[in-house]
Amino acid sequence: MNIGFIGAGNMASAMMKGIKGHPVGCFDIASAMMKKAEEQYNAKTFVSAEDLCAWADLVVLAVKPQVLPDAVNPLADVLAGKPVVSIAPGFTIEKLSSLLPQSRICRVMPNTPAMVGEGMIAIAEESTVSTNEMCIIEDIFSSVGRVVTVKEKQIDAVTAISGSGPAYVFMMIEALTDAGVREGLSYPVAKELAAQTVLGSAKMVLESEIHPADLKNRVCSPAGTTIDAVAVLEQRGFRSALMDAAHVCAEKSRSMGK
In CATH, what number does 3-152 get? Predict the structure, then answer.
């Protein structure tokens, strides 16, 4: 199946790099982005979005929500009868269907770890693609990470947790790395310690049925070093800051399609 991307930014690049077994192509108004996709991800590039859509069997809308209507309005005819996957936050299936009335719409929220095959991808259950097309889409995205299906009304929450979540995690890794340097470690060693700790901890959560709070408690010995550090994080509002940040992100996502 030929998979075409309208837009070749970070998220599209992550998916183009990760997808295996399907030809990928792209169009982007920035020629440098298309050159990168061609050279690094072996993507076929096109001189216009119309040419890309004519070639593709399935089209992924990977443009910013602010420009999505202007980007797809000229493509309604060439996309008629085709499945279209949108990764734009805020744009509902209903609104996308009004822009592309003759297309079948699948709303998806991936994240950038798809670039290393560890993405988290959520697909809206209410998508209007056929059962067979949904299976193909799930298979395509499974090649770049884990796939779950959710109610469309939950996509904004997905955006806040896994869509934007890598940024929060990168900030934590950066902070832990700086902490290591502050305590006398070299930057490369501190970075590896921080990143592998996040990777290993995430794997423990995914591969066990133990609640994250219980896993945390197993690291905290009575009157030990870890519980003192955890106390500081609680005093500084570590958990509530993350929850508030995710809430603001979800609210922004809800407003973007209006």
Answer: 3.40.50.720
Domain 165-256 -> CATH class: mainly alpha
Which pTM does this prediction carry? 0.89
* C-beta separation of 226 from 219 below 8 A: yes
By the 8 A CB rule, do 106 and 137 touch? yes
Write down the domain spans for the chain: 3-152, 165-256
The answer to whether 43 and 25 are in contact (CB under 8 A) is yes
Burial class of residue 95, CB neighbours in 10 A (0-12, 13-18, 19+): middle
pLDDT band at 143 (very low <50, low <70, confident <90, very high): confident
pLDDT band at 257 (very low <50, low <70, confident <90, very high): low
Instruction: Find, among 256, 233, 169, the residue nearest to 248 by Cα.
Output: 256
Instruction: In whole angstroms, give the CA distance from residue 173 to residue 190.
Output: 9
